[in-house]
Amino acid sequence: MHRIAVAILMSVFLSSFTISAALAADTCASQAADKKLHGAAFNSFMKKCQKDAKASCDAAAADKKLHGAAKTSFTKKCVTDAVGK
Fold it and tell me: Within a 10 A sphere around the Cβ of 74, how many other Cβ atoms?
């Protein structure tokens, strides 16, 4: 019984690690690196990606009905996570 519980915990841990790694790999910075962008192209891509992330995070905050400091905090963390800086 103990081995089954350990196996279940390991599978849950590994699946959550894989999901978080996949999400972390999809940041603006990682996309720019994958595209091998440098200089003005990098800056332009990052600016557009950050703008898109802000719009997406604002929509998510509205869906969660956040206001004031909660909305600001949520949006700031959401954009930071999406940009990957």
Answer: 16
- Return the exposure string of 13-34: e unless at least 16 CB atoms fall within 10 Å of the residue's CB, then b: eeeeeeeeeeeeeebbeeebee
Q: How many residues does the chain have?
A: 85
pLDDT in tens, 34-64: 999 999 999 999 999 999 999 999 999 999 9
DSSP secondary structure of 54-81: HHHHHHHHHHTT--HHHHHHHHHHHHHH
pTM of the model: 0.65
- How many Cβ atoms from other residues are within 10 Å of residue 11's Cβ? 10
Residue type, 59: A
Nearest 5°: the CA angle 81, 27, 56 is 65
